[in-house]
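Lecture notes, unit on protein representations.

Consider one protein chain, 334 amino acids long.
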Amino acid sequence: MTLWVIRCSFLVLCTLAGYAISALQPDLLALPFGPLMGFGLGGLLIAIDEMLKGFSLRAFSAATFGLLLGSMIAWLMDRSDLFKFAEDDTRWLIRLCLFLSFGYIGIVLAMRSNKEDFSLIIPYVRFKAQSQPENFVVLDTSAIIDGRVADLIESKFVEGIIVVPRFVLGELQHIADSADAIRRARGRRGLEMLNRLQKNPRLEVKIHEADVTEEKEVDAKLLRLTRTLGGKLYTTDFNLSRVAELQSVPYVNIAELAGALRTLTVPGEILNLRVIREGKDRGQAVGYLSDGTMVVVNNAQHAIGQQVQAQVTTLHQTGAGVIVFAELKLAQAA
């Protein structure tokens, strides 16, 4: 809304400028055409602005650098003796083709490059402000919905500028508007978590407006943006974590972090828990520890629904985590 207010104000100023030119120089521009030409010029610039809305400052800087580099090469070729035998009436055409061709190639190559490529062209120069923070925490949709990252940030286990890309926020809003009640609840939970972080005066939360137009999928956009910012991606998506690892993008999988911080259970330890359902084998009952670890208790089927004491016998590692096997020691009525 603020952008359109600026655009409308600019359009009015262009129209007034056209009217002023007509009033001061009636011979140059008649009165009815001055405001119309000012309005048309303003409208044209606004249309160009709308077409370039996905064109970031980084892309503009890269395009400018590529244009300068291409123009320099074209100028060097023009100043050489390569075209000295060309006629004067065709020399201007050759020059035009040189500057257009090398300017275009320079722009395209520069926009396809990243900051590491620029450091090869200009050694020892890094396009980074000295005061720029080094630590960017990039959140994906799964981490926002999960919510545990908010606790990590507020407890200062994770520090830095919180970055939420605009395309991630759009995906979150789409989930919150879903017709599925479960997805809608998850989306609203994520929006509430973001609102909670933004209200914390000790935290800096930024909505990153730039869109990675070279990529189509949200995961690919996230990885490209994280690498460009030099930040670290926080997620609970297992597949995204593996792709980030393959592409050498720094990441933290919150689910893996939670698993690593679970209470260590050792054989011989006595556990107090409530068994809630039957196990797979005869006589077994299943309960859960406070951190979600599943405990299979032998000879405890008769105690389902009761608080029991069980002694750990073995631990079994699976892809989803650790399963604890234990023997019933004491069953107490609930």
